[in-house]
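Materials and Methods. Structural model of Late embryogenesis abundant protein LEA-2 subgroup domain-containing protein. The 218-residue sequence of Late embryogenesis abundant protein LEA-2 subgroup domain-containing protein from Trapa incisa was retrieved and submitted for structure prediction as follows.
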Amino acid sequence: MGKGDQVTPIIAGAVHRPRSDEDEALSGQFKLRQRKYLTCCGCAAALLLILAVVSLVLAFTVFRVKNPIVGMNQLTVTRLEMANGTLRKDVNVTLLADVSIKNPNVAAFRFGNTTTTIYYGGSEVGEGRTPGGKAPARRTLRLNMTLEVVPAKLVAVPTILKEIGTGALTVESRTRVEGRVKIMNMIRKKVVVMLNCTITYNVTSQGVHEACWRHVSF
Ligand SMILES: *[C@@H]1O[C@H](CO)[C@@H](O)[C@H](O)[C@H]1NC(C)=O
Ligand SMILES: *[C@@H]1O[C@H](CO)[C@@H](O)[C@H](O)[C@H]1NC(C)=O
Ligand SMILES: *[C@@H]1O[C@H](CO)[C@@H](O)[C@H](O)[C@H]1NC(C)=O
Ligand SMILES: *[C@@H]1O[C@H](CO)[C@@H](O)[C@H](O)[C@H]1NC(C)=O
Ligand SMILES: *[C@@H]1O[C@H](CO)[C@@H](O)[C@H](O)[C@H]1NC(C)=O
Ligand SMILES: *[C@@H]1O[C@H](CO)[C@@H](O)[C@H](O)[C@H]1NC(C)=O
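The predicted structure was written out as tokens:
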């Protein structure tokens, strides 16, 4: 049985030689096609793998949304009017805050209206509003924020006289910058940056000293 099986193809091969060539050619073509198909599959898989790796690397580097950094560079008192040895109650005390927003991302950080609130002894004594804007990619945006402290609200806090007697007045400011980073229409991330500062006004020298804390939340 086994012998017969082995013999038959040889005979068949001898008799139909041209067809065998055809068959061989056909099977060769088939093998070639199969190899091409496999190569193609391999290439596609490799390409997909490379794409996946590149995407992953990009996701963790370039496309990762990083925290913008808000900083207070300088704070100056631009208006403080005294009358008869005390603060004039009808004129706001004005401070100019030089704020920088550093954007480390590859896309712009767009933010909306920004509000800074000033607190003294736990109560709100003033505020400042700054229109929204855009910190370009990998750039630092400088902003001038005007803050106004309402004297009437300030003197309403009972500890004020005692504190002024020590030669310094300490207030707190809280700035909230809310915006979003959009990278190539694919990644959108909302970012909220907070900047809390302790502002100390030296009554004698009229200088301002500030210390700030940053806080970011997504
Ligand atoms: C300062 O005091 C004088 C008299 O004591 C008074 O006439 C004047 O209105 C006071 N000025 C202010 C701004 O309160
Ligand atoms: C931002 O403030 C401007 C005027 O100060 C106002 O017209 C605008 O509606 C505000 N935008 C938002 C989103 O609150
Ligand atoms: C003083 O500042 C407050 C905001 O803190 C504002 O509403 C008010 O109009 C200002 N007053 C004057 C006289 O500028
Ligand atoms: C901020 O104010 C200072 C002094 O008034 C001015 O020199 C500077 O150009 C201002 N910066 C911006 C970004 O408006
Ligand atoms: C900043 O102020 C907010 C309230 O506006 C508070 O929740 C937060 O704890 C403060 N952060 C720091 C670091 O003081
Ligand atoms: C205010 O400034 C003066 C002069 O710079 C300094 O001698 C004094 O110690 C300061 N006062 C406070 C409370 O920091």
